[in-house]
């Protein structure tokens, strides 16, 4: 299933910049920016949103993310003018624009359907760091526990200079998603981009990968090799 993503913002720069950022981590996902008014000013455009949905017509579903309340109103108006079949393909997310778009794009890149992409975007709403999740802290007790029935695990050191920032985190998630296994990294879900980014692991940090399921050992081996490679940086 192909899920396209439409980014609606009052600012041309914010919409295009968000799309550009998401493309760095999800190159195969159709992403369209609908920013600003028709004359390039600050505001939203019914025509730009309608054109963006049309541009994503080849996708099986479209997820829309907006920056402010009036962007949702303009989007709702645009959706009211679609026929029933086209309208059923479009899903509007309430997630934060930038974080939600990045998380949604990575979920779409890994083959997620509309429901999975919406869920990934929604997870951005709770992605703020508390004291224990900041660099040098520890994960909450319920997240730090090993995977039940762990059948494979390994610990490796981060070697890339920038640590586990957005692009390497996205590569990690995409690799984890290919395996039929439940995988955790330093106590958090290895298939959640925002959870991994919230760890804020720097160069030299220890990365512990644990997995269970049919592909557990292969998942651990693949992810460890990815970390040791420095994610190609």
TrEMBL record:
Pfam name, any one: PTS-HPr
GO molecular function: phosphoenolpyruvate-glycerone phosphotransferase activity
Region (Disordered): 127-147
Taxonomic superkingdom: Bacteria
E.C. number: 2.7.1.121
Keyword Transferase: yes
Domain PTS EIIA type-4: 2-129
Keyword Transferase: yes
Function of the molecule: Component of the dihydroxyacetone kinase complex, which is responsible for the phosphoenolpyruvate (PEP)-dependent phosphorylation of dihydroxyacetone. DhaM serves as the phosphoryl donor. Is phosphorylated by phosphoenolpyruvate in an EI- and HPr-dependent reaction, and a phosphorelay system on histidine residues finally leads to phosphoryl transfer to DhaL and dihydroxyacetone.
NCBIfam families xrefs: dha_pts (TIGR02364), PTS_HPr_family (TIGR01003)
Protein name, entry field: Phosphocarrier protein HPr
Organism annotation: Curtobacterium citri
Higher taxonomy: Bacteria, Bacillati, Actinomycetota, Actinomycetes, Micrococcales
Gene symbol of the encoding locus: dhaM
């Amino acid at each position: 299933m192909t899920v396209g993503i439409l980014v609606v913002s009052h600012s041309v720069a914010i919409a295009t910049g968000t799309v550009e950022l998401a493309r760095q981590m999800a190159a195969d996902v159709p992403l369209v920016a609908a920013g600003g008014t028709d004359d390039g000013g600050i505001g939203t455009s019914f025509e730009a949103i309608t054109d963006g949905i049309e541009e994503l017509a080849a996708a099986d579903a479209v997820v829309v993310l907006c920056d402010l309340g009036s962007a949702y109103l303009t989007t709702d108006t645009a959706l009211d003018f679609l026929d029933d079949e086209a309208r059923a393909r479009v899903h509007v997310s309430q997630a934060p624009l930038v974080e939600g778009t990045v998380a949604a794009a990575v979920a779409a890149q890994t083959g997620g359907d509309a429901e999975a992409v919406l869920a990934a975007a929604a997870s951005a709403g709770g992605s703020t760091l508390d004291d224990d999740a900041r660099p040098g802290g520890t994960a909450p007790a319920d997240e730090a526990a090993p995977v039940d029935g762990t059948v494979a695990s390994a610990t490796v050191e981060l070697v890339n200079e920038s640590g586990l920032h957005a692009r390497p985190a996205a590569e990690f998630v995409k690799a984890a998603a290919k395996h039929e296994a439940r995988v955790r990294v330093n106590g958090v879900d290895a298939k959640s981009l925002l959870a991994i980014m919230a760890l804020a692991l720097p160069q030299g940090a220890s990365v512990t990968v644990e997995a269970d399921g049919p592909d557990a050992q292969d998942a651990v081996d693949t992810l460890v090799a990815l970390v040791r490679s420095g994610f190609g940086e």
